[in-house]
Every structure is written in C-alpha cells, then in structure tokens.
Write a structure and sequence with these properties.
Bound molecules: adenosine-5'-triphosphate, magnesium ion
Largest sheet: 9 strands, mixed
Number of strands: 31
Oligomer: single chain
Strand content: 25-35%
C-alpha cells in the first residue's frame, strides 16, 4: 500500500473526547472514527489490525477442532422468552419491532440462537462433540460506552459454543479452548494472564477470563507472585488466617465510646488495632436488609456476598435508613442482639474477644465472641482480597494488578439446553440435554488492549503479529530519482517476499514521516535517503526499542525477513 493513496487521516492533537490512550491513538492515527456514541467506523488501518486478530483467532479455533459459522444478528424475542432472558437481560438488549409488529432484538450474544440451531439439527450422541464459533458484530446498549474500542455499543466479537454429551466431554472441550486461548493471545504478542472468574450461581460450572495486563485496565486481577494462581477480584480468595479459637473467651463488657463511629476513631480511642475490631455494615439483598460482619481492616466483595446469599443484587444501605432498618444507630451497630439476619465473613469466624458496636449510641462492646454472643445466619468468604494477603494455594505473596478482559471462557453445563429443551439420544437411547460451554473474545477490544499495553509518547507500538503493516518504508527524498527508484524496488521486493509493507511516498519532510510512522506504530521502519545515494546504505529502525542499524539493501531485506519470521512464530509448538 502507498501512503499517498491510503485513507489515513492522522491528527496532530489529542482529541478532547478521548480519555484513555488507546482511544486517543486510534483516533489520532486514523484507525477509527466515531459515528455515534459507542459506534465506530473502521478505516483501513483499523480494519487491518482487526483482521490480524481475527485471523489468529480463526486459525487457533480451527486447529482446536471448532467450525466457523455465521449467525443472524437480528433475533426473535420468542427465542429469548424460551430461555427466560427476554425479561432478565435488561436495557443492554436493544429491542425493536419489525413491520409485522414482531418483537426482535440485536444479538448481544448468541446462546439462544446456537442452541436452537443445534437442537434442530443434532439428535444423537453421534453428532457430538460439536464446537461452533463465529466472528461477528455484536450490539449491546452499554450504559456507559467509553474508551473507544474498549467498551463500544457495537463491537466485534468471536463467540464460540460447544456441545458435549456429558460432563467429562464438556470438561475436555473446555481444556482445549483454554489451550487455544493461550495460543491466541501469545500469538498476538500480548502479556496476559488467564484468571479464575466468578460464575454466579450456575452449578457445576467454571470460568476463566483472559486479561491483558495494563495499568489502565478496568478490572483488578489478583496474582500470586510464586505459583500460577490468578483470579479476578470477584473470585479471588486468600489463605485463611490462623484461627484465634484457642483464646479464652473473656467476659463481655460494654464501654463508652462517645462520638467515636468510624473504625479508625474507635480503634484509636480504645487503643486497639483494626484487626481486633469487627465492623457491621447493612446491605440490602434484593431489598431485604442483612448485617454483614467484617474484620475492621477488610472490605466487602459484593459479588461474593451476592453469591453467598443467592441474591440477584446487593447494595449498601444508605446511612440515613440504617436506624429505620435495624432499630440501632449508624456507627454503633454490632451483631449482639441485632434484629437483622447476620452474614459473617469467614475471617471473623476465626477471631475471638473482638470489639463491635453495642447497638446503642456512644457505646461499643469488647470481648465479643461468635457462638457465645451471637449466631450468624450465613457464613462464608465475602471479603475482598488485598495486598497483604497470602495465596490460597501456596501461601506465597499475592499482588493486585490491573487488566483488560479480552476473552472469557465459561462452562455453562445444561442451563441453556434445559431451558430450551435441547436434547439428544445417548448410547442407551436416553434423552439428555447437551452439556454446553461458551467462549468469547473481544476482537476489537483486543486491538485497543494491545495499544494500552504497548505505546509511548510518540504513539502506538504494535506487536508485529497484529500490526496493520509489518514494515513502513520511508522514501526520505521523493524528489530524488535515484532514491525513489530504490524505494520502489524495495517496495516490490518486500511484497514479493510476502512482507506487508506500507510505502511512505508522500512529498513530505522526513520529520513528519518519522512522526506519522511512530504514531501508527508499524514495528519495522526501513529508510531510503541520502545515505543510500552516498554510501549505498539503508537504515532500519525498530519501533519498540528505537534501535537503528545501517545495512546494504540485500542485508536489510535479510534482517527484516528474520525479524518478521521470529515475531510470527508461535511460542508453543503446534
Ligand atoms: P465486560 O465485563 O467487560 O462488560 P462481559 O463479561 O460483558 O465483559 P462477555 O459477555 O463475556 O463480556 O463477552 C465476551 C468478550 O467480549 C469480553 O471478554 C470482552 O473482551 C468483549 N466485550 C464485551 N463487551 C464489550 C464491549 N462493550 N465492547 C467491546 N468488547 C466487549
Ligand atoms: Mg458486559
């Protein structure tokens, strides 16, 4: 491709609307343009990067035995009613009526459609296992579309769905997909981790998210610094603290704590560490109040709380409603005598002789003990892991880091096949529901995540496997016939050798060519200028480290071939 003919409208300034670096650089580099909130046009460079990711995804899905299909984007409401999701999905599902008043929606995901396809066409165990995927535009009417390709309303996803005859088969398929995802993101040239993810309340299921590690990520990822344990914050657990159960329960005692409400105030007033205090927080679980008991220095993880209670939603109660909900004053709540169901965090179960509120203004209780002084209605791990915690597997130090979710694999079990009555006959002639899995990759988000992970103040630094071009060839003196002839010759030769090259043939100053090349992040820059005329030498510069070397044309081509081959080689053998 020639720069002079390419639709590549680069911008000098950062667009005001863009908050994160990938969004800024995708706009400035002329990769995308916004049509309306969360909806973007892909220009040639943007599409080229997307196609690179798609191709890697396609190759690895095919290698793992999955088959590509393309499902409709418009889906009938009736199918969503059958699965029960028409009412549950909420406003992210864009619903509309066609001219015959039939209710429809734009597909945000395709479990219903694929399950329908398979139930209509597979009737026997002989057709299993079956693993189908597509790469397609999805629509989700996100409440806050933002960050460009990171969270669009319209975006490109690879979604795959597997059908097995039993749990063991489904587990084996899941393992294959896990492998395929490892290969995909490795081949894309990304630093990532597969992390254990929350599965809500679907029984027998498990799930991993694939997170590109980047400081700007929306998700917090907990990783062990010693073993390969990694989980997202909604799921991460910590090694249990040694129980203090051996401590003798001391007599319960009420003390005056006038005006001392917060954990730090009370701890300072009583001269105790936060680890010796249990705080009581009121949550509304599907509208019903519950009192959550946590060690003073711990925080609630709402998704864990939600799962423990089997609730659809938990929210922290407003301060001014606490008196009405509990009959006790905010700031002085405690479990002893409280007329609200008690939910005790697992860490509190191991504590003894702790301080709590007394359910009476300006007073706390000391030497409170579970069992003797109160009985929890629910007990389990509901707290957020923090930097001080130890790995639940190996006891090593945990670290919290940020990530961008680019992929998600999920063992669904039979939840959809049962709801949609999708069954097959097993070897004994028994009718059984398919055991399913689903596997998503945010294709357009992966391009953005790569940029979040890899850029500098001059622009994008694309990993070569997903760069729109592998090489940018700069003709630094287009007015010079000899130099231009050499640039044209190199351009031809590179393409003949299968190298993807963009020739900057514009009549521009070298400085502005360098700037654009850096901005759009092409990994290898090959330059033809006066040095060639005087000494027969070209310059090769690598975008990632800025290293420049000189070489004759023949040597330069050999170096480039090798760089490209090395970058494309998958890390793991086939
Ligand atoms: P998120 O928590 O970020 O909203 P999700 O759990 O809704 O993601 P899935 O339904 O698992 O996502 O979709 C599969 C993949 O599609 C995600 O891993 C993500 O990479 C991508 N994706 C989801 N929503 C968007 C979006 N609004 N814009 C771009 N990519 C998205
Ligand atoms: Mg979402």
């Amino acid at each position: 491709m020639r720069f002079s003919q390419l639709l590549l409208p680069t911008l000098k300034e950062d667009p005001a609307e863009a908050e994160v670096v990938s969004h800024k650089l995708l706009l400035r580099g002329g990769f995308i343009r916004k049509l309306t909130a969360g909806v973007y046009s892909y220009l040639p460079l943007g599409l080229a990067a997307v196609r690179k990711v798609e191709q890697i995804v396609r190759e690895e899905m095919n290698r793992a035995g999955a088959q590509e299909v393309l499902l409709p984007m418009v889906q009938p409401a009736d199918l969503w009613r059958e699965s029960g999701r028409w009412d549950k999905y909420g406003p992210e599902l864009l619903r509309f009526k066609d001219r015959n008043e039939r209710e429809s929606c734009l597909g945000p995901t395709h479990e219903e459609v694929i399950t329908d396809l398979v139930r209509m066409n597979i009737h026997s165990y002989r057709g299993l296992p079956l693993n189908l995927y597509q790469i397609q535009t999805k629509f989700r009417d996100e409440i806050r579309p933002r960050f460009g390709l990171m969270r669009g309303r319209e975006f490109i996803m690879k979604d795959g769905y597997s059908f097995d005859s039993d749990e063991a088969g489904a587990d084996a398929t899941y393992a294959k997909m896990y492998e395929a995802y490892q290969r995909i993101f490795t081949r894309c040239g990304l630093a990532f981790r597969a992390v254990e993810a929350d599965t809500g309340t679907i029984g027998g299921s498990f799930s991993h998210e694939f997170m590109v590690l980047a400081a700007t990520g929306e998700d917090v990822v907990v990783i062990c610094q010693h073993c390969d344990y990694a989980a997202n914050l909604e799921k991460a657990t910590a090694q249990a603290e040694a129980a203090a159960a051996g401590d003798n329960p001391l007599p319960l005692n009420k003390v005056a704590t006038p005006g001392q409400k917060t954990v730090s105030e009370v701890c300072e007033f009583l001269q105790i560490p936060a680890e010796s205090l249990v705080k009581t927080m009121i949550y509304l679980a599907d509208g019903q109040p519950v009192a959550v008991l946590l060690r003073g220095d711990h925080e609630v993880q709402p998704v864990k709380l939600q799962n423990l209670l089997g609730a659809l939603e938990v929210v922290l109660a407003e301060d001014d409603s606490i008196g009405r909900l509990t009959g006790a004053p905010a700031g002085y709540l405690g479990p002893v005598g409280l007329e609200v169901p008690l939910v005790m965090d697992a860490a509190v179960a191991g504590m003894a002789n702790f301080v709590t509120g007394a359910n009476e203004a300006d007073h706390h209780l000391v030497n409170v003990n579970p069992g003797r002084d109160f009985a929890p209605d629910h007990q389990g791990d509901i707290r957020m892991v923090n930097e001080d915690d130890l790995c639940p597997r190996c006891g090593g130090k945990l670290a919290l880091t940020r990530g961008i979710e680019v992929g998600h694999i999920f063992k669904l079990g039979t939840s959809y096949s049962q709801a949609l009555n999708a069954t097959f006959l097993d070897q004994q002639g028994q009718s059984r529901p398919f055991v399913m899995g689903c596997y998503g990759i945010g294709v357009s988000r992966t391009v953005a995540a790569a940029i979040e992970q890899s850029h500098d103040r001059d622009g994008i630094i694309f990993p070569l496997p997903i760069a729109p071009f592998q090489v940018i060839l700069l003709n630094l003196t287009p007015k010079d016939a000899e130099i231009s002839a050499e640039a044209e010759r190199l351009y031809r030769e590179l393409r003949q050798q299968g190298i993807e090259v963009l020739l900057d043939d514009r009549d521009e100053r070298p400085g502005s060519k360098f700037k654009d090349a850096d901005l759009i992040g092409i990994p290898i820059r090959l330059m033809v200028g006066k040095r060639f005329k005087n000494e027969g030498l070209l310059e090769i510069r690598t975008r990632a480290d800025g290293q420049t070397r000189e070489a004759t044309p023949a040597a330069a081509l050999a170096v480039i071939r090798e760089m490209v081959a090395n970058a494309l080689e998958p890390a793991a053998p086939a």
